[in-house]
Design goal:
Strand content: 5-15%
Low-confidence stretches: none
Keywords: Heme, Iron, Metal-binding
Helix content: 40-55%
Shape: globular
CATH architecture of the largest domain: Orthogonal Bundle
Number of domains: 2
Binding site for heme: 365
CATH class of the largest domain: Mainly Alpha
Protein name: Cytochrome P450
CATH superfamily of the largest domain: Cytochrome P450
Family: Belongs to the cytochrome P450 family.
Cofactor: heme
Strand order of the largest sheet: 1-2-8-5-3
Length: 421
């Protein structure tokens, strides 16, 4: 009898707690004035359904909800998402802390990219910046070129054998080799003191540095490889773009340097468009502002509800996903169609402020210069040297279907497969 009473009391208390918490989240929470589905405001299980059960689909559901609720949306009990690229600079400006919740999934809290606190992030980043600077990447350009030559040799071998090539796998291996090459280069150049000497002792522990390395390896391989695969799919699927690019590349020497290639406007436009369609880090890694923000929809907001301002309390996790930024109709008309020309001229220069493939602000990607060097040298070498055709590959093999921190195609995709003709 006593057990029944205790059980009944426990159930009643639990129900009261759930009801009380639900009422608070819906009507008395600091974000209760932000539009969005009530279920998303009540519980994280709403996100769980779209990201785990479906899986990796919540980012697309968020876009659908924006069309219903407007450019500002409460997507979890604690988080807000904006679908207005006019607010990008506000969200990613200055020293912003990251939202801790999604960073836990990376399981590498010691990595600079997974560091939530802005001051600690700055400390960790400053130790790495010289290693990834443009000057340092330029000094290693000959090593990158060696790996590009190896890549070309592998493709040439397949051409002789008339065998299928999986470019997606090749590009992943190439990017992985590049990272290993940079590490090895650092080991054999002892003239400078290790950059980690600027860090306090607690930041130089083996565990912390292992986590730093793991995250750098992940970021340094997946992203460039994905961009290269997407770029080459679209080049081979659009001969007019490929022919124009090849004509431009043939205006420079066969072994043109990275700085020479950077001066080719159409090549750089192709790279910008490839990065846009690869979406960079697709996960919502929200920023926390220390001050209250006010969101008023800009002229870039194409969803309903424009004209109404919303106060966003300090420390609210706030994000604009790369999917939102890179498919904004007001900036990128017909956003899922490849169009390098959108990056040419003055209009193209202005669009660069909306490029989020390497994120923005003080937390932008450390490896942006290395990635640009890799993309320039690989694209120039392969476009100049090989005639390829797609084999059993279509848009479904590269289109963004699942959000797994990066844009992933259909689970059954076998990558970009080609033959050399």
């Amino acid at each position: 009898m006593v057990f029944v009473r205790v059980l009944t009391t426990s159930v009643v208390v639990a129900l009261l707690w759930v009801v009380t918490r639900s009422i608070r989240r819906l009507f008395f929470h600091r974000l209760s004035h932000i539009p969005g589905p009530r279920l998303a405001a009540l519980t994280w299980w709403y996100e769980f359904h779209y990201n785990v059960v479906l899986p990796g689909k919540y980012i697309f559901k968020i876009q659908e909800l924006h069309r219903e609720y407007g450019p500002i949306l409460r997507i979890t009990p604690e988080e807000v998402h904006i679908n207005d690229v006019g607010f990008l600079d506000t969200v990613y400006a200055g020293l912003r802390d990251k939202y801790e919740y999604p960073l836990k999934a990376l399981r590498v809290p010691g990595g600079v990219g997974a560091t939530a606190d802005a001051k600690l992030h700055k400390l960790r980043r400053e130790a790495l910046v010289p290693f990834f600077s443009k000057r340092n990447v330029l000094s290693l350009q000959h090593l990158i070129a060696e790996k590009v030559d190896q890549l070309s040799e592998i493709i040439a071998k397949h051409a002789i054998e008339a065998s299928q090539i999986n470019l997606s796998d090749l590009f992943f291996a190439f990017s992985n080799d590049q990272l290993g090459m940079m590490v090895k280069a650092g080991e054999v150049r002892p003239k400078k003191k290790p950059s980690t000497e600027s860090l306090p002792p607690q930041e130089r522990t083996l565990t912390r540095l292992e986590q730093e390395g793991a995250l750098l390896a992940l970021a340094g391989t997946e992203s460039p490889a994905l961009s290269l695969g997407i770029i080459f799919y679209h080049l081979l699927a659009n001969p007019s773009i490929l022919n124009r690019l090849r004509t431009e590349i043939e205006t420079v020497p066969t072994h043109a340097s990275w700085p020479q290639l950077e001066k080719l406007p159409y090549l750089m436009a192709v790279i910008e468009e490839g990065n846009r369609l690869s979406f960079g880090v697709t996960a919502r890694i929200g920023r926390r502002a220390h001050e209250e923000l006010v969101f008023t929809p800009s002229s870039y907001a194409t969803t309903p509800g424009t004209g109404v301002s919303y106060k966003i309390p300090a420390r609210t996790p706030l994000s604009i996903s790369t999917l939102s930024a890179h498919t904004a109709q007001s900036v990128f008309p017909d956003p899922f169609t490849i169009d390098p020309e959108r990056w040419l001229g003055e209009a193209g220069r202005k669009r660069k402020r909306f490029q989020m493939a390497f994120t923005k602000g003080s937390r932008n990607c450390l490896g942006i210069e290395l990635a640009n060097a890799e993309l320039c040298l690989v694209i120039a070498a392969l476009v100049r040297s090989f005639e390829m055709t797609l084999l059993d590959t279509d848009a479904r093999d590269v289109s963004f279907e699942h959000d797994y921190q990066i844009a992933m195609p259909n689970i059954g995709s076998k990558g970009v497969r080609v033959t050399v003709i």
